[in-house]
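Thread: quick sanity check before group meeting

JM: Hey all, I'm pulling together slides for Thursday and realized we never actually wrote out the predicted structure for the chain we discussed last week. Dropping the sequence here so it's in one place. If anyone has concerns about the input, flag it before I start.
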Amino acid sequence: MTRFPDRLAILAAATIAAIPSPALAQAYQCRIPQQLFVPRVSPDGPTRRVPVTGYTLALSWAPEFCKGREGRRADTVQCSGRNGRFGLVVHGLWPDGRSTWPQWCPTPRKLSPHEVRRNVCMMPSALLQTRQWAKHGSCMVRRPETYFAVTRTLWESLRLPDLDRLSKEPGLTAGMLRDRWTIANPAWPRSAVGIKLNERGWLQELRLCYRKDFMPTACDRGRAGAKDNAPLKIWRGL
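JM (edit): ok, ran it. Output follows.
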């Protein structure tokens, strides 16, 4: 496993700057809580050190995630409604390997409350931020600040389609969502957009696939998810 230095953030910024992508556009609200605490997390699997071959930026559809979680303390920021309303949010930036992925690389570096506040509108959960750094970011870079700087650079380069409006389209399919994504982000090939549905056909997550140089690349079978002709439903939180 190769852990990259802080120049990874510079590479991501330089690469994204070369792509003619519009600014972030998503008409949802976010109010940063007065207090945020950094929880402890425990590994859910073994340490795995393997070479990084690319990256996945996973975007969770908050209305679907929050269905039934509105009163859960761990999901207060994202789901209670007291801190605004969220649409697509970052689940995580994951390093990929050839047949597996690196994870839970030992690190003494801890996420600070200041860094959590900085990222809460992008990733509205202190627990999720802490877990993503410990499980994935620790295998990419030396500091959590660099991991989230890279994640923000990628996030802020994207133009997010109006999924509320798309949800009302008759005969909606996964292919129609890919079409809408590539219209909003012309530099993205359709094959680089993975779509994860739950067992009932509701949108859970987009998985955006990158090469090591942070250019979009075709998703492998495990990340591609739903085929273009798969029926798709998008919960609007109503």
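AS: nice. Confidence is low (pLDDT under 50) at residues 18-25. The beta strands are 54-61, 88-96, 193-197, 203-211.
JM: adding both to the slides.
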